[in-house]
Amino acid sequence: MEAIDGPTLEMLDIKDRPQEQQIDFITRLRHGLRAIRFAGIEQTDWHLNQILCPPDPRDPSLAPDIVFIDFAFALQNLGEEEGCPLHLDPRNLENALYDWGIDEDIMKSCWFEATEEEY
Ligand SMILES: Nc1ncnc2c1ncn2[C@@H]1O[C@H](COP(=O)(O)OP(=O)(O)OP(=O)(O)O)[C@@H](O)[C@H]1O
Ligand SMILES: [Mg+2]
């Protein structure tokens, strides 16, 4: 396993960063979730410490990178008949971000509704 040198999302100061950085970060987080679900993977254990945020290697003052970790309890949709279908609404991470205190206007501006391929 690759060791990721960066804080967890919970430890991150993203809420104190400029609004454009927050929007950039939350948008990438949303697309990351979309990609995970499109791949048929359901992270059943979302919380802020399952997301690591190493600094952008080009410039640490920019919004950090995003690495999802700990899929120990994840479900995988391996086929239409025998697989484990996605069943949880993809709002768990969204709710965790709201609970953490990400600005509502920022969330509304970039946390898009679940797309068809996420189900
Ligand atoms: N690849 C990694 N690189 C750097 N740090 C890591 C890595 N994997 C895990 N950690 C650190 O260890 C913590 C716990 O990791 P992980 O979520 O895999 O274990 P866990 O036992 O499921 O913990 P939890 O119950 O909090 O989810 C992470 O929040 C992170 O701080
Ligand atoms: Mg964990």
Question: Sheet bearing the most strands, described?
Answer: 2 strands, antiparallel
Head-to-tail CA distance between termini: 29 Å
Helix content: 25-40%
Total E-strand runs: 4
The whole-number mean of residue pLDDT values reads 90
The low-pLDDT segments are none
The side-by-side strand order for the widest beta sheet comes to 1-4
Please report the number of helical segments.
3
| Oligomerization state | single chain
H/E element sequence: HEEEEHH
**What ligands are attached or bound here?**
adenosine-5'-triphosphate, magnesium ion
- Secondary structural class: mainly alpha
Counting structural domains, the number is: 1
Shape: globular
User: Hey, roughly how much beta strand do the residues contain?
Assistant: 5-15%
Gyration radius from CA atoms, angstroms: 15 Å
